[in-house]
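Q: Could you fold this chain for me?
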Amino acid sequence: NSYGGIWLISSSYNTVSSNNISNHIFGGIYLSKSSNNQINANIGSNNGPVDFVGGIFVGDIILVMNSNNNNVSSNNVSKSNFGIMLAESSNYNTVSGNIVSNSKGGIVTFLVSNNILSGNTVLDNNLGIWVYQSSNNMVKNNTVLNSRTYGIGVSSSNNMESCCNNIIYNNNLINNPTQAIVYTDNNIFNLEAPIGGNYYSDYDTPEEGCNNINGDNFCDEPYVFSSGWDNLPWISPDGWLPRGNTPVGSNVQINPDAHVSILYNEVTTAGDTTVTQSTTNPGPDKDDFMFLGNYYELSTSAVFTPPVTVCINYDDIACRWREKRISRYSTGVRVEQAGMM
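A: Sure. Below is the predicted structure, expressed as structure tokens.
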């Protein structure tokens, strides 16, 4: 029940790691005018029963003020006023991989810019992630769930210039009464495909207005919320993560085997392409073919638009015939276009 836990003031290049910090009135870990510190793998709870002292936010598990280029990662914080807060000219910090729960505010920024909030799990808080009077921050790859009011919010005072150009994308927003809300202009909730926007648990079925007719894994219509919209909402959680070795796109070339390369004209749904090599003829036999050693079975879970070009490398020393007479023989699979080299 002391006033403060760990304080760094005008102190840089420190590592604060693996501490258990609880029951402090003025916060767990406090940085002021400090830079290039590593704050990671700490556990904090029940810090800060008060909201303001002398005009300064207190009662946070991790409070970073007027401090730059710090890394706050892999901490587990709960039951505080604000779980993690970046305040008053704290710029170019990275907040990643933290778990923040059961607090008034999960992760909050105030009068800061150019920070990255990434890969955090923010759950069961009053507010999830709140960007207040802050600009040019990136909020991505977070999961915000079961907030009691808002999932992700952006707001400002009368100074509209201090609140804009935040980029918020590839976040999972799950079971928040209000998934997203903005009170300012010029904030972005999606990038161009294939990166896209965010996932919203109340907008992922046709009954909720989310259709995926073209199979690109985005809802065909934007997700619209108070004073904002997401033009490319994902139809499933973590939809932006790589799925297999065959991504969405045009002229997608992969090499699933040392001897085989495949060029897809267009892949509309990502998947995995595999090649199984064998010396046994899968049949049926074909009388007018003489097989040259290996057999290749190609399969894919990706959805694609033909043609597909398949190139197979072979040892021409073993070839006793004119190479221009070499053909491919396929069974059970339609090959739109094939080549050998």
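A (continued): The first strand starts at residue 6 and ends at 9.
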